[in-house]
Sequence to fold (395 residues):
Amino acid sequence: MNDCRAPHILIADDNAADLCLLRRILESLSADAVFINAAAGTEVLPLVDSGKPDIVLLDVRMPGMDGFEVCRQLHEDERFREIPVLLITGMDSLEDKLNGFRSGAVDYIVKPFNGEEVKLRVNAQLKLKRYRDELRTMNRKLQQAQDALVANARMSAVGSLAAGISHEFNNILGMIGGYVQLCLEKNDLNQMYEILCMVQTLVGRGEHIVQGLLGLVRSNRIKGHVKTDLVDLIAQTVSLMKKKLSDAGVDVEIIKREVPLICCSPGEISQVMINLMKNAMEAMDPQREKKIFLEALRDKTNPNYVQLIIRDTGYGMPEKVRERIFDPFFTTKGVTGGGDNNSPGTGLGLSIVANIVENHKGIIRVASELGSGTAFTIFLPIDPAEPVSAPPVSP
Ligand SMILES: Nc1ncnc2c1ncn2[C@@H]1O[C@H](COP(=O)(O)OP(=O)(O)OP(=O)(O)O)[C@@H](O)[C@H]1O
Ligand SMILES: [Mg+2]
Fold:
């Protein structure tokens, strides 16, 4: 029954006088109530099907098919199961009342009728039916809203993924562009060869990212992990950035220490370092020493972890910026390059970094001091597939 529909009441009784009396009692419930009459049990199901009543009142004793059988058949049919059925029984027939409940009736009315009682019982069941219908409608709407939300979230996930991929390829193409430019300026074949090797490595990185994405679709990231020497990976990544670093006049120092091999995706960890070094370069103060330190060491408090530290002597960041740096699309660089240092930012670099670290079951922390520099520390488990407790790190 919907909100605006008048109640539809089906009464089945072979005794025309009783049927008429019941109808008169119930007419006072609602001026526009619609009544459907059945004179035999066999008429009820087709009438329920066509008239869609909100409630059915069934006399127990009817020739052909009695009230219990009709009630049972209504209850077994899932189209009609939700329609409340009240049985009309004799005054002291306890057995009839019990059989009625057993066959699926929700209540009963006794003969001879007490008008007030009949109205109260029928009204209570009509109300319950209305609440159930409203609840079902609300649930359906909620489900539709939830489906729409999921579809939206999927679309925005696709959007951020596309933005993330563009960001990475932009970095790679920028570096390739720089090397190609250098190549064009050189006449020395040996130098050109060296430069082309760098370009080849970058193309490999691009391929690796695509592979990583395919791996993501196949949703088994740990599979692509290999035992990696972090110190070697730092050296390789720094050499990839060599041209950009020297163009920016930034000096790099790799602090070498004993570190165990770690199980990771080297392409992704190198991507992390590139993003952090790029940020460090862009945060340099022209008036001060421009330096980036990279260091890998075993974590003292939890030897199942290593730390990868990338520290710069840049201008640091205020608390307000630090709080938001991992938010996707947060940037202080201006999206068209009009920001602090002329190079545009998408604000995705650090969210990609955080994502990769999280996929490695690692933790990233940042410490920054205005005017002195910033240090990112990444805690990586030696093997992300092994369940180990995280190292105690301060926020
Ligand atoms: N080493 C750093 N020193 C000072 N500020 C930093 C440093 N690293 C990040 N930030 C701040 O964090 C913000 C977000 O960095 P993120 O790498 O996510 O985006 P972005 O660098 O602005 O853009 P993109 O990575 O696309 O170039 C930067 O805009 C900058 O304000
Ligand atoms: Mg960045």
In short: Residues 275, 278-279, 345, 349 surround magnesium ion (ligand 2) (CB under 6 Å). The mean pLDDT is 87. The chain has ten helices and twelve strands.
